[in-house]
Specification:
Blueprint (H helix, E strand, L loop, with lengths): L1 E4 L1 E3 L2 E3 L6 E5 L4 E5 L5 E6 L5 E4 L5 E5 L2 E5 L5 E6 L5 E7 L5 E6 L3 E5 L5 E6 L15 E3 L5 E5 L4 E5 L5 E6 L6 E4 L5 E4 L6 E4 L5 E5 L11 E7 L5 E6 L11 E4 L5 E6 L7 E6 L14
Antiparallel strand pairs: 1-26, 2-3, 4-5, 4-27, 5-6, 7-8, 8-9, 9-10, 11-12, 12-13, 13-14, 15-16, 16-17, 17-18, 19-20, 20-21, 21-22, 23-24, 24-25, 25-26
């Protein structure tokens, strides 16, 4: 295992402690809580986990290929949703009313599931017939104003819908988007998957910040998956190392707005393809959109 900690401010080189992190390892089949020192503090197995949240009560909510689960710190499942057969789930989100948002590939829908496991709301999504089931959707978020932002992975776009499912806008993306994060300034932070790129766009669709494939020396952007925008303006990115890059470089890293690396995480022995994460020292309430995931 290797954790590299470094930050450059003016002419001073300062050592920063890494952060405690919750992460999904898609290829390794685990959801894990890591200490700031990179030690495994909690871990459960799941088939192809893709999205993860620490809830205000300390439980862990995560999506996996066949649904979503909420698990306590003593590893008891207290809530679960199982998707229909031949359906894939790649995103979930805890909502303020206690329901859980889920997006399904195959049924092509967003659903909000209540604490009893029943579907409280359904929004149908329209995708091209030529897009394979696995490639239909990734990161999906409900915003504070009740809109939905959906990564149409196979179509290279972000789609915003109103609360009834009406399409409000479509944003082309240079790649296959995996995560879309609505920011307080109304911008969108978008990871572009195998486009090897991250973009932040303003409400008019103009790119106001970007991270390109070779902007970080020695840390090439591979498949850019999950991310977490921190209260200090830094961002942690999951650099998915599948598709021929297993074990080649750090699995996630934190950078400043001016693209300085603060720290990186790499553990080839215990992790394969980390694709989503959440900084656990961000004290915002994930159910109220205070955590910018």
């Amino acid at each position: 295992m290797k954790i590299i900690l470094a930050a450059l401010f003016s002419t001073l080189s300062l050592l920063h402690a890494a952060r405690p992190v919750l992460c999904c390892d898609y290829g390794g089949g685990t959801v894990t809580v890591l200490s700031a020192a990179g030690e495994v503090e909690w871990q459960v197995e799941a088939k192809h986990p893709q999205d993860c949240w620490r809830l205000p009560n300390g439980n862990i909510l995560f999506a996996h290929q066949s649904g979503a689960r909420e698990v306590t710190r003593d590893k008891k499942t207290v809530w679960e949703y199982t998707a229909p057969e031949k359906v894939e789930v790649h995103a979930c989100q805890p909502l303020p009313d206690g329901n859980v948002l889920i997006v399904e590939c195959g049924t092509s829908r967003i659903i909000e599931v209540n604490r009893e496991g029943r579907i409280a709301k359904e929004i149908k999504l329209v995708t091209k017939d030529s897009v394979k089931l696995h490639n239909q959707f990734r990161g999906t978020r409900k915003t504070a104003d009740g809109h939905y932002l959906v990564c149409f992975k196979g179509e290279g776009k972000i789609v915003e819908l109103d609360g009834s499912g009406k399409v409000l806008r479509e944003v082309p993306v240079p790649g296959d988007p995996h995560e879309v994060v609505p920011l307080p300034n109304k911008n969108l932070l978008i990871t572009c998957g195998d486009g090897h790129k991250v973009v932040e766009i303003d409400p008019a669709g103009k790119t106001v910040w970007e991270l390109n494939e070779n902007d970080l020396p020695g840390n090439t952007l591979r498949l850019m998956a999950g991310c977490h925008r921190l209260p200090n303006g830094n961002t942690i990115f999951a650099n998915y190392l599948g598709h021929g890059h297993l074990g080649e470089q750090p699995q996630f890293f934190e950078i400043t707005p001016d693209k300085k690396v603060v720290w990186t995480f790499e553990d080839k022995g215990r992790f394969k393809t980390i694709n989503q994460l959440m900084a656990l020292d961000d004290t915002g309430d994930a159910t109220k959109g205070a955590v910018l995931r």
